[in-house]
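Dear Dr. H.,

I hope your travels went smoothly. While you were away I took the liberty of generating a structure for the chain from your last submission, since the lab meeting agenda had it listed for discussion. I wanted you to have the full record in hand beforehand rather than looking at slides cold. The sequence, exactly as received, is reproduced here:
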Amino acid sequence: MFTRGLPSIRSQLIWLVAACVLPVWLVSLYLVHFAYVEKRERVEDDILADARATSVIIDRELSSVQGALAALATSPALDQGDFKAFHRQSRALLKVFPEADIVLADASGQQLVNSFRPWGTPLPKRNNLEAVGAVFAGAKPVIGDLFFGALTGRPLVSVDVPVIRGGVVRYDLSMTLTAHRFLTLLPSRNVPRGGYVSVLDSRDITVARTLDPERSVGKSALPPLKRAIASKSSGITERTNYEGKVVLSTFCRSSLCGWTVIVGVPKSEVMSVVYRWMAVAFLGATTLSLLGLALALDIGRRIVQSIQSLVEPAVTIGRGETVLAITSQTVRETAEVSEALLEASKLIQNHIATEREQQRSLQQANELLERRVLERTADLEAALLEHEAFSYSVSHDLRAPLRHMNGYCALLLEEFADLLPEEGHHYLNRIAAASNRLGLLIDNLLELSRINRTELLPIRVDLSAEAAAIVDMFRETEPDRVVEVEIAPGLAAWGDASLLKQLLQNLLGNAWKYTARRDVARIEFGSRFEAGSTVYFIKDNGTGFEMAYADRLFKAFERLHGTDFEGVGIGLATAQRVVQRHGGKIWAYGKEGEGATFYFTLPFTLPDAPL
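The corresponding predicted structure, in token form, is as follows:
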């Protein structure tokens, strides 16, 4: 009944394992998160590296074109105005740059030479006059943005260099490269599945794109990508591409031409790599944790079995029965407990055997004691019968002669009063007084004997009322005496009413008697609470006594004041017997000439009997 609601060892072990595994899991989760971030950053760095490498390839291609044009610009044919010869030289150079065209234009943009057309064919003005104007204005090479050719309508990119003679720009020499040429420069093998590489010109127009190139070339980049490119020269951004898919795009802007290389990879593809790695790590951690948990549970099961195997032996010992053997243990501590239980069982059985032997000896002693008690009881009953017979003898046999003595003395004093001398009257009076005193002594002895034999009939006794009645009786006996009596109200006790009345009568009578010679006599009856019990007291200002003789006060026939006061010396002995019958004690304090105080307790009570 005391184990209900308490956790089991199994559950505590499970909690212990959980408490040990939890920090490991928390650290593992942190490490997995850290690895996730690191893995994603590594993938992003790899993609960004691809973008930078591609940007270098584009720059190298454009630089080679600029170098070739710069060399061609030094042709003597231009010095002589021999454009036909220059047309031949241009076509010869294009063997190195297939699908490209070389155009020579003046400051107005009018084409003078176009390698795409045969010599002598009429030529229009160039479509990208901005590049022509920039070359004549800056006298330095210009890499233009995407435009569509005036003759072919193909998407083209021009690289323009100035032809300077005498420090003046005479012509604009340009090579127009098809967008397809840049497409061939873009890597495709290292791009993740579903990814693509694209090139944007300085206006963020698509020049080349590995994914759906026909429809992508000439399109402007989407606004989110534009904002990212405008904010920094390289980086990574998450956006939606032309196809409506969420991609991670790394970009790198060229410092040579202002173009931007974009490497876009679907986010799902990037995250699948990360998630696969995380899944492997999580699966490994979970497997190790489950193996550890299974091992811990198996160990816990064996510990629980070892502990549970001790329950039945413990219960057997509790019943006082012998434990013969305990199941073999798999844990050292429980094995030690099992050995202790076996040893305890042996000790208990030895103790039980010893106790049984002692009980037999005690039973024999009790039987012997009961026989002796019966014998002593019989002796006491016989003595009591003798005591009652003696009391009857005293009451009957001794009182009769005393009555005769008193009767004869009274008869002599009445009928022969005239014949008796005065001395005879004196002797007869003394005989009568002595017989009365002896009769009083006999009555007191019988009363003292009766106290020990009387059966107690405990009731609630109003001590204050009893004391007041006794004092009233004393006042009626001696109406001329002036005695100040103070009785505390509400004094009560449980006890035999007649015996407690006799107790108060003896103690108050004692105080009344020994204050007779005081002009103003004082008697007080009260109580106080002391050491957990009620102590009653009767105090007077009478003759008192010396404390050196206090041990003689309650002895029968002991009188400290001799014949100065009447009495036979039985009253205080009787009071002591009454108090003792009620389980209390009585004592006194006094001083010669200043009075005495008698204290007594009455602890006798009945269960659930309120006072």
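Two observations you may find useful: The first strand starts at residue 101 and ends at 105. The radius of gyration is 68 Å.

With kind regards,
E. W.
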